[in-house]
Design goal:
By secondary structure, this protein is an alpha/beta fold. It contains 7 helices and 6 strands. The longest helix is centred in the middle third of the chain and has 19 residues.
């Protein structure tokens, strides 16, 4: 079997301790931008590994450079019977709005979506380099292609009206990007850790 080019980023398990789930909540609540959350997720990669469905291994790669041109906050991947499957993750500020008052995309959301488009375009134009092992001057992302799924994490659940939720679903369907609030990530982690159902209002 070929040597794993991303062995340093292998995540052995996806168990989340209650103190880790609480730590994520505290990191998000205290953050004025995405940097504290980025740091916490780098220290606890099992949180992002849970976004994957399983397979024969999971990897969480922070600040992955794509030939020095683009730097996704995280690249996460898994291996299954059909090969490797990768996802890109962009973190925007927990304090950023998702929409304007008229339900247009906020400046921060547009920035996150544009980042995803740039990554996909680069991978489409450099697929051989993206897939090639790093020992052969590639990026080591075996089997990746320009249709790589992506997540953008931004904002909180406040003021989530029916109209806002409908608009968000429309954008996600059109762009093939999962746009999630940080409360969504907190709920997922809290549930995995066996904590009571998380509601933002409990901490306000």
């Amino acid at each position: 079997m070929a040597e794993d080019p991303n062995a340093a980023f292998y995540v052995a398990g996806t168990h989340i301790d209650p103190d880790v789930a609480v730590g994520l909540r505290e990191a998000v609540d205290g953050a004025n931008d995405e940097r504290p959350v980025q740091s916490f997720l780098e220290d606890h990669p099992q949180i992002l590994a849970r976004l994957l469905t399983g397979g024969h291994g999971r990897w969480v790669i922070p600040q992955k450079r794509l030939s020095g041109e683009y730097i996704p906050d995280f690249v996460i991947g898994e291996r299954s019977s059909i090969g490797f499957e990768w996802h890109m993750i962009e973190l925007e500020s927990p304090a950023a709005p998702i929409f304007t008052k008229s339900y247009g995309q906020s400046q921060q959301l547009r920035k996150g979506i544009d980042q995803v488009r740039d990554w996909r375009r680069w991978i489409s134009n450099n697929q051989d380099k993206a897939r090639r092992p790093r020992a052969e001057h590639g990026e080591g992302l075996t089997d990746i292609n320009g249709n790589v799924p992506a997540f953008v994490f931004i904002g909180r659940d406040t003021d989530r009206t029916d109209e806002a939720s409908q608009r968000l679903r429309q954008i996600m369907d059109e762009l093939r990007v999962q746009i999630r609030s940080y409360d969504w990530l907190i709920r997922m982690s809290s549930s995995a850790a066996g904590l009571p159902a998380y509601r933002r209002s409990e901490l306000d």
